Amino acid sequence: MASMTPRERLLTVLSGGVPDCVPVSPDFSNMLPCRLTGKPFWDIYLYNDPPLWRAYIDCANHYDVDAFFEAYYIDLFGDRQPEAFGWERFIIARDESRIVTQLSRLEDGKRVWQPTADVFRVADSPGYRIPLEKLGFPPEPERYEPVEGVKPDMVGPDVVGRIKELLGDRGIVGIGLAGTLALGNPEAIYNYYDNPDKHEEWAQQRIDAVEEKFRRLMEFPVKPDFFLCGGSGTLVFQTVGIFRQLALPAVKRAIELATSVGIPTHVHSCGPEAALVKIMAEETDLTVIDPLEEPPMGDCDLAEMKRLYGDKIVLKGNLSTTGLMLRGSADDVRATVRRCIDAAAEGGGYILSTGDQLGRDTPEENMRAMVETCREYGQY
Question: Three-class SS of residue 93?
Answer without folding.
Answer: strand
